[in-house]
Amino acid sequence: MSSAVRDVVEIATPHCEKGLGKLILSADSKDLIPGVRVNPYPLWPDDRGYFLEVLRVGRGLASEFPTESTQVSAALSYPGTIKAFHFHRHQTDCWVPVQGMFQVALVDLRKQSPTFGARNTLYAGALRPWQILIPPGVGHGYKVIGKDPAMLVYVTDRFYNPEDEGRIAYNDPQIQYDWEIQHK
User: Helix or strand or coil: residue 163?
Assistant: First the structure.
């Protein structure tokens, strides 16, 4: 996506019904918020542990990330931690959950989007090794599920800029994302 198109992303907080939104069970789900992409990544386990590939420059979900400003970061979170919601006006994220399990919550905050207010929930990590590409204007966050800490490695198409980032409380009364156990 060109930077000119990214510059016109207008952000607003939608009013949503309480819940999780659409549960995404396959990488090619038609219910994914437009611009969000999911790609399974292979794990190569052996008797010593496992190997996974986070990124190949110029290939995969982050293939269009510029080599001169791509940043790779990691966050370790303890069980039950919720980090949500935040969004970017310009930055694209590529999340790679490499340890533990995450309940990933996405919400379309792009005022001009035909899916403004749509929410997605993805369960990704050790049991579902998915990379998740999150475009500008899509609010995102996660909850660490299970009994173990979880590690998220993420690649961004530009260096961190606090002025590009916005935050919305995880329990925002308009988004109404349901972080409780669903007993499904």
Answer: helix
Question: What does the alpha-carbon distance between residue 132 and residue 124 come to, in Å, rounded to a whole number?
Answer: 9
CB 169 within 8 A of CB 96: no
* CA dist., res. 29 & res. 155, Å (int): 23
d(CA 128, CA 62): 19
Q: pLDDT tens for residues 122-176?
A: 999 999 999 999 999 999 999 999 999 999 999 999 999 999 999 999 999 999 9
3-state class (DSSP) for residue 63: coil
Q: How far apart are CA 105 and CA 122, in angstroms?
A: 7
Helix (H) or strand (E) holding 5: helix 3-6
Q: Is the peptide bond before 85 cis (omega within 30 degrees of 0)?
A: yes
